[in-house]
Specification:
- The chain has about 350 residues and is α/β, with parallel strands linked by helices.
- The protein is built from 14 helices and six strands.
- Strands 4-3-5-6 form a four-stranded parallel β-sheet, sandwiched between helices. Strands 1-2 form a two-stranded antiparallel sheet.
- α12 links the parallel β5 (about 280-285) and β6 (about 305-310).
- α2 packs antiparallel against α9 and α4 (about 60-75) packs antiparallel against α5.
- The radius of gyration is 20 Å and the shape is globular.
- The chain binds adenosine-5'-diphosphate and magnesium ion (MG).
- The site of magnesium ion (MG) has 6 residues, from loops.
Length: about 350
Amino acid sequence: MIKSDHIIKWMNLANIRLDEQKEYLTRLDQAIGDGDHGINMSKGFKEVIEKIHQTDCHDIGKLLQDIGMVLVSKVGGASGPLYGTAFIKAGQVLKGKEEITISELGQALQESVNGIKLRGKSQVGDKTMLDVWEPVTRYIQQKGNELNADELVSFAREQMENTKELEARKGRASFLGKRSIGHLDPGAVSSFLLFEALCSILEENRDAGQTKEDGMAEYVGVVIVSHSHELAKGLKKLLSQLSSHVPVAYAGGTDEEELGTSADKIQNAIRSVYSDKGVVVLFDLGSALINTELAIERLAEENITKVHIADAPLVEGAYAAVVQSGCGSSLDQVIEVTRKAKSMVKI
Ligand code: ADP
Ligand code: MG
């Protein structure tokens, strides 16, 4: 069953992914629009995270409506009202529900699709976000509770890639006419990222459901904190080759995309991989420690308390942590191997 906790995790992960891909989305929008899609999406979801962590809401419908309202009110451009409408409409369907099945989620998303169509006066094939939302929703409805999250990710990616060959008929890209052909639609890409994040949550829910009652994650989460966005991103990629199950998130660079660290980013990264199992944080240089400590202090107010900062070199420590966590080990066991990574002899 999907609960409000899962929706919150979904939003946390979406926020991280959209922030990671901010520049890419901007580049896509520069090619056929005005170049603000990355900024719009990352700003919007950052605001969403701030809002949903102030509320203690078990009503999934209300939560989705709140998310939609934030997107409508805080995001400029076409994508704010369109994404906002999608969440508000889904929320109306699920009002009062504290637990839903994947089939019920599918029904709610159908209302989102209807909402996007109505607000955007768009159809499938117009080269917009709808070209991902509509087929993905249909797919979720068809598969229902038999849904395979990995297959859905591939399907959603295919829909996103199909927008490349389309000619834009809605939004700013339509001014380019045939010249829009050959470019991915930025809104289709951000929609893919959103559904990819949803799939991770559904997958985690299913895996954990086999071993744990409440259906949340069963691995210690790992967070990388670095002064450099690129460095953190590269390390995450490296770690993903070791285990696809262990939740890994990173906080790299400052909010202004400069070198440095940000307590806000660290906070979001920890939240996105947090479960009862706890989280271990690895960092590169001195000031990262101060910001991590600040983030942990703030998270304690949200009852996120099982977070440990590892005294270990970043790469070796993170590597050891992911391998150990992937065995289903406890937080203490993961801390222990990171400690050993400090004295590891390399040559
Ligand atoms: P803006 O176009 O106002 O600069 P964004 O750049 O944030 O807003 O969002 C652009 C994305 O919004 C497009 O790539 C497209 O997917 C989506 N979009 C724009 N207009 C419409 C519409 N009428 N219907 C559906 N989606 C639309
Ligand atoms: Mg734009």
